[in-house]
What does this fold into?
Amino acid sequence: MATAGVSKQQVAKFWRQQPFDLALPNANGRTPLGNCDLCFMKSERTLAGIMRDYPERAAWWIDLEETISTT
It folds into this structure.
């Protein structure tokens, strides 16, 4: 989208106009939680911030890995 010249503000405006709200925290145009809060493709810094702010989400992933015995 950046190569098409679409700004973060334009994206945010688009989503504000939709009939639903995903209620994702928005930090300077970024939504670190997204649809996969602890995705392995996120940076270590982003993951650390999410785990600091939402420790229960890390616990959920840990429990899931223990349940299915894989990573």
Remarks:
- The chain has a mean pLDDT of 86.
